[in-house]
Fold this protein.
Amino acid sequence: MDDQAALDPRQFRRVMGLFATGVTVVAAEADGDVRGMTANAVMSVSLDPLLVCVSIDRRAAINTVVERVGGFSLNILREEQEALSPYFAGLWKHPTPPEHRFQPWVGGPRLVGCLAAAGCRVHAILDGGDHRLFLGRVLALHQGEGPLSPLLFFGGRYHRLREPALAPRDPEEVWIPEDVRIFYGD
Ligand SMILES: Cc1cc2nc3c(=O)[nH]c(=O)nc-3n(C[C@H](O)[C@H](O)[C@H](O)COP(=O)(O)O)c2cc1C
């Protein structure tokens, strides 16, 4: 499956879908209404200044909203919040929305009960083909209470951690060189 001629967007999505991620809801408030969109094309970018990035489809309604209001929140979903992912992706088939609530916050509204959240001011908007890359300057961080059980997305399906963590590891500990094992092979 490495034939250049065979490359197409579906194959691209299939291959990149093997990069396991969490699931977030990007949220912004405009004219008193909260807009949200499910996004997993999210990454942390910089520590100084604190920057995150989310890739948003040019056609998505929230694209112009975030640009106009100049801020957004990134809300990381828990496994119990799985229903919110199809809901904020426009894929919800039921007559009533899954239960959820936002509260006013820094940058954008925060999803109550999320695993963690970052409140951001738009720092830059970069061209990303049919998407735009929103760099967010992080103004506020939130970590929810309770077990660390994120909703995961992999291979086009939702997954759960087999062993949810009780507490995150101290980030300072994560990159100590003796801890990094490199495997060479085919
Ligand atoms: C798990 C999952 C992850 C997604 N990630 C992204 C993403 O990172 N960027 C994006 O633009 N759309 C992403 N989408 C699609 C949008 O959520 C969806 O197209 C959304 O409805 C677009 O907003 P609109 O309905 O206002 O057009 C994702 C959908 C799902 C289910």
